[in-house]
Amino acid sequence: MKNRQKELAELHQRRLEDGNGPVSAFRADLFRMFRKNRAAALSVLVILLLILAAVFAPVLTPYSYDDMDLGNRLSPPSAAHLLGTDEGGRDILTRLLYGARISLLIGVVPTVVSILIGAALGTIAGWRGGITDTVIMRLADIVLAFPSMLLAMVIMFTLGDGLVNVFLTLALLNWAAVARVVRAETLRLKNTEYIEAARAIGVSGPVMLLRHILPNCLPTLIVLFTLNVPAAILTESSLSFLGMGIQPPSASWGLMVNAGKNYLYSAPWICAAPGLIIMVAVLAFNFLGDGLRDALDPHQKNR
Amino acid sequence: MKKKLLSRLGQSLIALLGVALLLFLMLRVVPGNPAAVMMGEHGDNAAIARMTAELGLDQPILTQFFRYIGDCFTGNFGTSYSLSKPVAELMGGAFLNTLWLALAAALFAWILGIACGVIAAVRKNGILDHLFMGVSLMGVSIPVFLTAMILQYFIAFRLHWLPIAGMDGWKSFILPAIALGWNSAGSVARLVRSTLLDILQEDYIDTARAKGRSQLGVLVFHALRNAMLPVVTMMALQLSGLLSGAVITETMFSINGIGRLAVQAISGRDIPLLQGTVLFSTAVVILGNLGADLLYTVLDPRIRKGGGPQ
Amino acid sequence: MEQNTLEISHLTVSFPTDRGGFRPVNDVSLTVRKGQIVGLVGESGCGKSMTARAVMGLIRSPGKVTGGQILLEGKDLLALNGKEMRSLRGNELAMVFQDPMTSLNPVVPVGKQVEEAILLHRRVSREEARKRTLEAFRNVGISEAEKRSRSYPHELSGGLRQRVMIAMAMVCCPRLLIADEPTTALDVIMEAQILQLMRQMRDRGTSILFISHNLGVIAQLCDYTCVMYAGRIAEQGDTRELFERPVHPYTRGLLGAVSSLDRKGEELETIRGSVPAPGSLPAGCPFGPRCGLCDETCRGACPEPREISPGHIVRCFHAGEVPV
After folding, report:
1. Hey, are the CB atoms on B211 and C88 less than 8 Å from each other?
2. pLDDT digits (tens, 9 = 90+) for C110-161
3. Which residues have CB under 8 Å from B257's CB, separation 6+?
4. Tell me, what DSSP letter sits at residue B155?
5. Fewer CB within 10 Å of terminal CB in chain A, N or C?
6. Non-local CB neighbours of C323 within 8 Å, separated by 6+ positions
7. Which H helix or E strand runs over C207?
């Protein structure tokens, strides 16, 4: 018995010494992925371009995103307006560039919030078990039971329109799936030798969660993040498309498609450009997420 | 086994009640008195107060909730403010349309998804594999409204093959079904491929080959049979996605379904209708999940007969 | 002259790797005579199973047979096309796999899985196939055959499942049965029963290539034994001769590592070092780095097989020498 304790303590020590074990292994995995998976590498490039477009939008275009030019409505792509103009005579390319700001924010901010909430609740549920677990997971079940679009509509209805409310809605929508995955991961880790070792030498609960459980969930969380960003972008674009998300004159890609849908047959370029850019952005994040999952997910490694 | 089933049933019931409560609470904190909304502009304060009492809106919120739930069980989902009809009646007609749309979309998604998934798995790392997986990821990434617009523009508007929108016979359901099923087809293809690749590594596949089964025989009689298990589970998960997508598809193709009703409810600030449609859709999803679990039990002898050694 | 059921000569299996190819089976020659049980023994990863798979034509891509010849009753298996090979598999050529837990399809009743093997190779009705299945079940000692045949794999114990696998392999009376560690996953009692079953099969005219890492089992069962190391056959000979007069240092090491009652009290000898990683074989004799007799000759070239007495073949420059 004594021996077992000592052994476990040593194991724990070793684990601490190569403390960033999971992290450095993770870096190697990443490197290997980009070298092997060209689609993922290309996706990173696309995402970087989108970020640059969002940041430098004012520099890249002479127009402003809400400059109406009623004499120049619905004009097809030309030298002056590379992607044409919309129903208000606004330059579509300009609005796409500014739209990247909103879409990227929509992708990232609520996803980070939902991952923080989901990770916190998931680890606590998995670690504490019992009634805490039941309550949290039942709540997650309830959120997950809703068709996401309908729940998003109801929350937006309750909160009212606006960017911040879209953030909130998406965060409230997505935490549950994260919590479920993190809880499962926590349960798995809880039974591993080195957590047992840490317990045997009396590491306290919160320290355990922060130093051992969460860092080991990191790869999973990163994959979840990359896959939730495109999901958030899609949900926002659908909401805005229905007129329930971002409000004009802000330039959101979904909103642009919404405005253009009445002119689909006379001026299809209004819908085409934002519609395609949504797809490209979502595709890039999905490819990256897929690549990351293949590279990082320990459960899939042996395939 | 029976016990497990009962607990699963209880779980679904609790989820349904939770959904109803959550929905009820969310819609109660909406600013504005529903009675006032209902009366419109010509309601004086006294009339609004009378209406409030009539609707039971002055009661404690839990009382209101349990009354609502009780009513729901008798098929009474309240009366729509904006359409002045019983919500149940509105949903009854709409549900059938949504059901047909979802079934058609699911059929499309399953046939396409399974075919592409199987071919990709069999030709792993071949050209078709890369092509199908690229296209399926694109299928997962494309917003429903874009698929719908592309189909409307090219197939209906340019080529005149099918109606652009409306509810004019079965033909008008084809484009919406494809638009709605496209996303699911992508995820089905990806799931089928990865499941099949796992199964082809199993020992019993070697056994089947050692028996003298041909490649195709192994695939059909041994691999696909096992691969269908996780795929069935996914069928239920997709129900939720299909109902989400139906909101957009129905709106774009002017199909009078539950999703379009929900959109109408929001633009009319029609709380009973919104509550009814969302509760109903979610109930369908929960039932679907329950159904899939039961189906899984029937399909997998390991669960069906329960226990056994190991 | 006796006919040989299986004749493998100079068989080589290669896997392409980043650094050239890797050969899990390298220049292997062995013969299974009619009515014989031949043992193939070695540590895990030495290429035993890969040899078996090569005979069955079941090597998984990207591996493939890159050299040699496999003759089944004089028929060149490597020259057959897919269809011809399939008509032999499960018919004249059958295999029992190591793990009965995973080798049966979990969603099909076991009886059906045996019937399948019959229906694939014999033009008989379903009822006839069913009858033969039950008979095969009785032959391998499954009681209540009727009831068991309707069971799913998870409802049977490991021993029963392995019997089902053997019934499946034997149902078409194959010329050659390849048994790939059929008892490794079972307990000792089951093992003894399965071995008894193997002897009955042989007595009914099926030759057996029996793969194992367990020398005890090999000694009990096999008429002739091949010892494999790192893809090559290090030594082969009649079981009795091999166990009494092993000449290859590796065989000697293996036998030394087996505990035996009449050597009670002596310390067990072990072979030092461990099996080289796949693809990183040393130059010269692959066993060199672990061998007490290794010298310049051994490091310079891999020894060719030579026959030191009739039927006793060894790949070693120093066969029979004693380390100083």
Report:
1. no
2. 999 999 989 988 889 999 999 999 998 988 888 888 899 999 988 888 888 8
3. B94, B95, B97, B98, B101, B246, B250
4. I
5. N
6. C249, C292, C293
7. strand C207-212
> What is the end-to-end Cα distance of chain C in Å, rounded?
44
Å from A144 to nearest chain B CA?
9
Q: Give me the percent of chain C exceeding a pLDDT of 70.
A: 92
Global pTM? 0.80
Tell me if chain C has a CB within 8 Å of the CB of B125: no
How many residues belong to chain C? 324
- ipTM (interface predicted TM): 0.86
Structure tokens at B235: 């069928």
The pLDDT assigned to C289 comes to 80
CB contact under 8 A, B310 and C99: no
Question: Per residue in A149-175, pLDDT tens?
Answer: 999 999 998 888 888 889 999 999 999
Q: Which amino acid is at A188?
A: R
What percentage of chain A has pLDDT greater than the value 90?
19
Contacts of C97 in chain B (CB under 8 A): 203, 206-207, 210
Per-domain boundaries in chain B: 15-73, 91-304
Alpha-carbon distances, residue C184 vs B76, C49, C169, C190 (angstroms): 65, 13, 18, 10
| Cβ pair C233, C227 in contact under 8 A | yes
- CATH 3.40.50.300, applies to C4-92+174-314: yes
| DSSP string covering C157-178 | -HHHHHHHHHHHHHTT--SEEE
Partner-chain contact B204 C104, CB within 8 Å: yes
Contact A118, A182 (CB under 8 A): yes
- Tell whether the torsion through CA atoms of C309, C312, C317 and C320 is positive or negative: negative
d(CA C190, CA C170): 18
Beta bridge partners of C228: C233
Tokens of C198: 């193997």
Q: Write down the CATH number for the domain with range B91-304.
A: 1.10.3720.10
Whether the Cβ atoms of residue B213 and residue C120 lie closer than 8 Å to each other: yes
Beta bridge partners of C211: C40, C180
